[in-house]
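step: validate -> pass
step: tokenize input -> pass
step: predict -> running
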Amino acid sequence: MKNDISAEQLENMRKKAKKMEKIVIVFSIVALLLYLSPFYIAMMEYIAMIQEKGTSVILEEKMSALFLVILVIVAVILAIATFVFLWLVVVRHSYDKFNTAFKSRYVLQIIGAIQGFAQLQYVPNGGFTWDDVRNAAAVDCGEQRYYDSEDLLVGTYENVRFQISDVTTYVMVRINKRKHLEERFHGQMLCLEQFDDRKKSNGHLQIFEKKSMSHMIGWKAEHEIHTENETFNSRFSIYATDEHNAYYILTPQRMEKIMRFADAIQGQISVVFRDQKLFVAVSRDSMFDANIDQPVADQTAKITEDAKFIQKAKEILVE
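step: predict -> pass
step: emit ->
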């Protein structure tokens, strides 16, 4: 493909960005030493002046220690400011170039090579809308003004259309008369859009892993469901708009698939059936972000793991 990029090319871009970062670190350390020099000279001159005036030894020592502390603090602040400025000007350009190539070209290339995936489109700045997340009811959607979603991947897997993206939600809380943002969910949400017509969900059927109930769950459907599978009941809390329909969808085979999915995926999960769609959310780190500290070969394996998330979720649909 015209837009393909080899792992070797990408690794060279990563190494260049890493080299720029090391150069900036070394330069910042040198800058710290340079910043210390004039302050140190000034401190020594001040001490000499105190000695000429005959100030006591104790006072002289205290003033010297105070000046030394001030000297170090000011020099460190200036060195940090220098590092940040150079990182934004020098390193950020190299990293952005590497990250853009990784996300917009390499990710599609790797996933597209996996059997079953087709019609892939990757939108780094795209994602689910806040209304999408609220209506899915797979996680706490938080407050709309603080909502964020990116790294949207759409396509088909074994002829089932999917969308997956990173999602982060927050609410503003007040503690001791102070406001601060509290994260409610950070991870990925997946939507499979061709749910079996014979198993259409009437409203929401929500399945929340119990260990995630304290922070991940948003609003719940009105009926709490208990299945005949006690192992499943012990691991998940189930809520449904239509009780009869919930039992129709949650066959013994499908419950086993959901438990196997939860075992295979690192992170807390929730599963929601709604109409002809299946939503799956997992609390974990962002997808597809390039890392200049990690060889491209290792990051390739992570892309493959992200693809397995889609593959394993699709198995839940299959009876």
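step: describe -> Helices lie at 7-52, 57-112, 130-136, 230-235, 243-249, 252-264, 296-315.
step: cleanup -> pass
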